[in-house]
Design a protein that fits this description.
- It is a single chain.
- The chain has 4 domains: 23-87, no CATH class; 118-190 and 404-593, Rossmann fold (3-Layer(aba) Sandwich); 195-398, Dimethylsulfoxide Reductase, domain 2; 631-744, Barwin-like endoglucanases, CATH 2.40.40.20.
- It is globular and about 70 Å long.
- The chain is 35% helix and 17% strand.
- With 746 residues, the protein is α/β, with parallel strands linked by helices.
- Strands 6-5-18-17-16-7 form a 6-stranded mixed β-sheet, sandwiched between helices.
- The mean pLDDT is 93.
- It binds ligand MGD (2 copies) and molybdenum atom.
- One ligand MGD binds next to helix 24 and strand 17.
Length: 746
């Protein structure tokens, strides 16, 4: 049962009709309000001016790319503005704050309250048995971590987590440190995010990344947006979709919800132009009905003889198994599992049949299911049938989350590094990196729980709130000898601690780092520079590379790597990266070029990087709906007012909900059938392999969602996601496929 970890804000819910248009003036007003309100007028305006400009900083919001050519003065979106306002707040969480509030008191506050207290200013320690965090000098903080690391039986008892805001330079140094120490325990947020995409794409096309560039959107004839809510999570993508529409593309949206941003969009800077209808065909799929739908599209393509035979013959393998499987499939099954009528599937297939310039975009709606990897591979199957790779306007576009999550992986933040990467790393640095694979996020939780891991170090993020099974994960962290977090803002993970706990405050992306610049990689493989220009929130902050370097120097005094020397001038880190990471030659010079440089991408150039050089068709069983009567399949999603576990507010403007996040969205007929009513408070119980988990006190909202489906917000509902309920092949928590029942409160 979940108790203390997600504390609700008591507030009434106000419902409005969801808006029919995303963007427009309300988005500008909301973004400005956050930036100018939180950060102050002068600071806020300055922050916004340099956001995503060629000589500015990379927006810490999402990983959507910036245009290669002209950029408008306001190359930002509402939610980017909120993200930087969050970082630019004038409020401070200083030692006096921690003296005033015990950890127990802070733990009784809501996530919204915690995040609103301001920026962390000093390194702080919570000693064994202490009730309050106390300040300590940086040197002592590093010595403390170094001591604890040295006292471990093996380096594999340490876990080094990363969240995707970390720059390439910090990430490279961090993985080097973990490996110099002797472990590949480098789990990251990607394990909960696009791991399923990486897995599915690597196996089939030989690269775990997307293959399109931003300008491909101008050449595409059909764009499918599936399992993604760009209006909220990637607002600048709507501009690309609008441009694609104006250039003649058709857009198909596949989602259990009619997300406002997918339907119509008004560009915030086109004050005098009308809104654009974005979606030509909306398919309201059942939660996790996508494999069925994608197979249905394949079947319809076969039936209309729309297979690109020469592409299939020359460039692919395993086609006969796939075609036989699809031929055997049954329309009734497909319609039942997907929840979409055969005519609609055929209508969408006719669009795909009309062109080979097809882009599929997706995000968490596909990657967080038990069969998430199958979802991704079925997309590849369809694109292969149509020959839609290696051509302008065609390919796969997994839209990344955190602004540098893709770069972190390129830099070696990965628990399963390739031998070639480790060989190059050893050669360039003189370390001997371990070859044994490390723990991913879910495995790290289990290892901490059963004592195989004892020390948890995080470079960013909010582990306890972002991971599944909140109570189980909290218990796991509480068993650690040390939990240490490099953070900008206070969060729940600072309050669910090991025997000793540390908070190590760092500079944010927008802040001046002694004149140094860092680099990041966006969702389309562009590496570019980012230079913060705002004064740091406190003189005691260190940059992430400096924190990693000083910790490494303390822990490994006789290491061959000159840690502090590297961190003194990030050009030196980049020179090292250039020796290790393929495609980053002349890193320093090329990253400084106008707009940066593209990393190599075989399939984009029509070269599949699989062992045979051919792209691979794959075969999957249809996912059958296993729900018992009274059960629902629940997805956990983001509202318009949050950045992952950071809450900006309690509203979800694009879904017409205001003031309460502890809600469960259900189809009105299901609410009736349960004998319940709108607005009633209920408990949610999840069911997994005979176990149950409960999250209390959710409000019923009748919503336009397919029957048998339920929707709640992340992280409030994470306590319901079983840690062992994961995607096959990628081990990503299946947090969009949780079986629940809805129980009346006693
Ligand atoms: N403002 C803001 N921006 C963000 C973030 C944020 O929290 N706030 N988070 C960042 C991060 S780390 C990430 S990974 C991305 C996340 O970006 P998204 O993936 O867009 O985020 P979610 O809210 O998880 O939304 C998932 C969408 O998939 C749909 N969906 C759920 N289940 C299914 C299904 O079974 N099938 C289909 N077809 N659709 C389904 C949901 O209805 C929802 O529209 O955004 C990034 N950008
Ligand atoms: N149920 C459910 N669970 C999910 C998801 C879901 O859809 N449903 N989505 C998953 C996904 S896609 C992701 S990516 C993960 C996210 O997991 P995380 O990345 O671990 O979580 P965030 O909420 O993004 O981390 C926020 C914290 O990062 C710190 N921070 C912010 N900026 C910086 C910085 O510049 N440097 C440093 N060092 N720290 C900084 C702040 O202290 C802030 O509190 O959650 C996953 N969990
Ligand atoms: Mo993510």
């Amino acid at each position: 049962m979940t108790k203390a970890l997600t504390i609700p804000e008591p507030a009434p819910l106000v419902r409005k009709e969801p808006p029919s248009v995303a963007g427009g003036l309300p988005a500008v007003v909301s973004g400005m309000k956050h930036a100018l309100g939180q950060a102050g007028i002068v600071r806020g305006a300055r922050l916004l001016r340099t956001l995503n400009q060629f000589d500015g900083y990379d927006c810490p919001g999402c990983a959507w790319p910036d245009p290669d050519g002209e950029r408008s003065v306001f190359e930002f979106c509402e939610n980017g503005a909120k993200a930087i306002a969050e970082e630019g707040t004038p409020l401070r969480v200083a030692p006096e704050f921690f003296a005033r509030h015990s950890v127990a008191e802070l733990a009784a506050q809501s996530d919204l309250w915690l995040g609103k207290q301001g920026r962390l200013t000093h390194p702080m320690v919570l000693r064994p048995g202490a009730s309050h965090y106390a300040p300590l000098p940086w040197d002592e903080a590093f010595a403390l971590v170094a001591d604890k690391l040295r006292s471990l039986k093996t380096p594999d008892e340490a876990v080094f987590y990363t969240s995707g805001r970390t720059s390439n330079e910090a990430a490279f140094l961090y993985q080097l440190f973990a490996r110099a120490l002797g472990t590949n325990n480098l789990p990251d947020c990607s394990n909960m995010c696009h791991e399923s995409s990486g897995t599915g794409l690597s196996e089939t096309i030989g690269i775990g990344k997307g293959t399109v560039r931003l300008d491909d959107f101008l050449h595409a004839r059909v764009i499918v947006v599936i399992g993604q809510n760009p209006g909220t999570n990637h607002p600048r993508m709507l501009t690309a979709l609008q441009q694609a529409k104006r250039a003649g593309a058709k857009i198909v949206s596949v989602n259990p919800l009619r997300e406002a941003g997918l339907l119509r969009f008004k560009h915030p800077q086109e004050v005098f132009k009308g809104a654009t209808d974005l979606t030509d065909l909306f398919l309201q799929v059942r939660i996790n009905g996508d494999v069925a739908l994608l197979q249905g599209l394949g079947k319809a393509l076969f039936e209309s003889k729309a297979v690109d035979e020469s592409f299939v013959r020359d460039r692919t393998e395993n086609y006969l198994n796939y075609s036989a499987h699809i031929e055997r499939s049954d329309w009734a099954d497909i319609v039942f599992s997907s929840g979409i009528r055969e005519e609609s599937i055929r209508e969408a297939a006719a669009l795909l049949a009309s062109t080979d310039r097809i882009i599929f975009c997706w995000a968490m709606g596909l990657t967080q299911h038990e069969n998430a990897v199958d979802n991704v591979r079925e997309i590849v199957n369809l694109l292969l049938l149509r020959g839609a790779f290696g051509k302008p306007g065609a390919g796969v576009c997994p839209v990344r989350g955190h602004s540098n999550v893709q770069g972190d992986r390129t830099m070696g933040i990965w628990e399963k590094p390739k031998p070639a990467f480790l060989d190059a790393l050893d050669k360039a640095t003189g370390i001997s990196a371990p070859r044994k694979h490390g723990l991913d996020t879910v495995e790290a939780i289990h290892a901490l729980h059963d004592g195989r891991a004892k020390l948890f170090f995080a470079l960013g993020g909010n582990f306890v709130s972002a991971t599944p099974d909140t109570d189980y994960t909290a218990a796991a962290l509480r068993r650690a000898v040390l939990t240490a977090h490099v953070s900008t803002k206070l969060n729940r993970s600072h309050l669910v601690t090991g025997e000793t706990a540390l908070i190590l405050p760092c500079l944010g992306r927008t802040e001046r780092d002694g004149g140094q610049l860092v680099t990041t990689e966006n969702s389309m493989g562009v590496v570019q520079t980012s230079r913060g220009r705002m004064p740091p929130a406190s003189e005691h902050l260190l940059s992430e590379p400096a924190i990693v370097a000083r910790l490494a120097e303390k822990t490994l005094p006789s290491s061959k790597v000159r840690w502090n020397w590297l961190a003194e001038d990030y050009d030196r880190i980049r020179d090292l990266i250039a020796q290790v990471v393929p495609g980053t030659e002349n890193y320093n010079e090329r990253a400084r070029r106008h707009g940066g440089f593209y990393l190599p991408n075989g399939p984009r150039e029509g070269k599949f990087l699989t062992p045979t050089g051919k792209a691979r068709f794959t075969v999957h069983d249809l996912t059958r709906n296993q729900l018992k009567s009274g059960q629902f399949l629940m997805m956990t999603v983001r509202s318009h007012d949050q950045y992952n576990t950071t809450l900006y507010g309690l509203d979800d403007r694009y879904r017409g909900l205001k003031g309460d996040r502890r809600v469960v969205l259900l189809n009105a007929e299901d609410v009736d059938a349960l004998g319940l009513r709108e607005d009633q408070r209920v408990d949610l119980v999840s069911h997994f392999r005979g176990e149950t988990r409960t999250a209390q006190n959710f409000r019923i909202v009748a919503y336009d969602i397919p029957r048998g489906c339920a929707c709640t917000y992340f992280p409030e509902a994470n306590a319901l996601v079983p840690a062992r309920h994961v995607a096959r092949g990628s081990n990503t928590p299946a947090s969009k496929s949780v079986v629940i029942t809805v129980e009346q409160r006693a």
